[in-house]
Amino acid sequence: MSAVILDGKALAKSREQQLQAAVRNLQDSGGLQPVLATILVGDDPSSATYVQMKINACGRVGMGSRCINLPATTTTEELLTTIDQLNQDSDVCGILLQHPVPEHIDERLCFDAIAIDKDVDGVTTQGFGLMAMGEQAFGSATPAGIMTLLKHYDIQLSGKHAVVLGRSAILGKPMAAMLLNANATVTICHSRTENLAELVAQADIVVGAVGKPELIKAAWIKDGAVVVDAGYHAGGVGDIEKTGLEKRVAALTPVPGGVGPMTINALISQTLQSAEQKGILKASLAG
């Protein structure tokens, strides 16, 4: 068996061409230019790199971007004021608060302050609740990107047993909800899960989202499984050990070049959707 490589980099590039055309059509029809506002608090170099990658993606598809850099000393109240200003700005279609923020800031409070129609990164409690209930909402960007990748490669989800390792509010939990909504049977594992290797061995689909390099061992994963690695660590390794997997599993994501590009692509795509919705609202008000 030779695994299908779930190439997120190639898919994101292809989808960017479609997004570029859609942005142009939106503006040609009198709609808004989609503008993504990014908020970076502090001077963490990794976070700065991620923000720049998102700004670059906006530029490639013809979207506008606005980057707000705030010092590490910013308070929760000051950050909330910035978010409120962006909520009120009719030119801004999407708001991204780069995670993580400094420890003294109440990140959840700030996430939830983002207007639901501008929550293109899918981080608000309201957005998660709507998505989990199968209602219209922007999904958390990384899980949404993974779902797009799986759909593109015709990975069967209905009836399959998916094991998600990780329970963060912006990755593990929404990933599990999206898989459940796609009719998979879902097991969520975390730091206190017992018999972890045995649970992973039962999985038709394994999603690594623990944030620890190669915590999930290749030997745990059964032949023919689909392996999705949402981690990225120094040295180009993910959350899942890949030794020998290409010859045993049905499909797997590379690290890098798998999930990461699709995360950014989902964010950009949802910003476009927000702009399209605003364009429809603008037209109806004018009428």
UniProtKB/TrEMBL annotation:
Reaction(s) the record says it catalyses: (6R)-5,10-methenyltetrahydrofolate + H2O = (6R)-10-formyltetrahydrofolate + H(+); (6R)-5,10-methylene-5,6,7,8-tetrahydrofolate + NADP(+) = (6R)-5,10-methenyltetrahydrofolate + NADPH
Pfam families per record: THF_DHG_CYH, THF_DHG_CYH_C
GO CC terms, sorted: cytosol
Metabolic or biological pathway: One-carbon metabolism; tetrahydrofolate interconversion
Entry-linked CDD domains: NAD_bind_m-THF_DH_Cyclohyd
Assigned keywords, A-Z: Amino-acid biosynthesis, Histidine biosynthesis, Hydrolase, Methionine biosynthesis, Multifunctional enzyme, NADP, One-carbon metabolism, Oxidoreductase, Purine biosynthesis
GO molecular function per UniProt: methenyltetrahydrofolate cyclohydrolase activity; methylenetetrahydrofolate dehydrogenase (NADP+) activity
EC numbers for this chain: 1.5.1.5, 3.5.4.9
Domain Tetrahydrofolate dehydrogenase/cyclohydrolase NAD(P)-binding: 140-278
Alphabetical list of PROSITE patterns matching this protein: THF_DHG_CYH_2
Gene3D superfamilies associated with the record: Leucine Dehydrogenase, chain A, domain 1, NAD(P)-binding Rossmann-like Domain
Residues reported to bind NADP(+): G166, R167, S168
Hydrolase as UniProt keyword: yes
Tetrahydrofolate dehydrogenase/cyclohydrolase catalytic domain residues: 6-121
GO biological process: L-histidine biosynthetic process; methionine biosynthetic process; purine nucleotide biosynthetic process; tetrahydrofolate interconversion
Domain of life: Bacteria
Role description: Catalyzes the oxidation of 5,10-methylenetetrahydrofolate to 5,10-methenyltetrahydrofolate and then the hydrolysis of 5,10-methenyltetrahydrofolate to 10-formyltetrahydrofolate.
Family as reported in the entry's similarity comment: Belongs to the tetrahydrofolate dehydrogenase/cyclohydrolase family.
PANTHER family to which the protein is assigned, alphabetical: C-1-TETRAHYDROFOLATE SYNTHASE, CYTOPLASMIC, C-1-TETRAHYDROFOLATE SYNTHASE, CYTOPLASMIC-RELATED
Oligomeric form and interacting partners: Homodimer.
Protein name per the record: Bifunctional protein FolD
Species annotation: Neptunomonas qingdaonensis
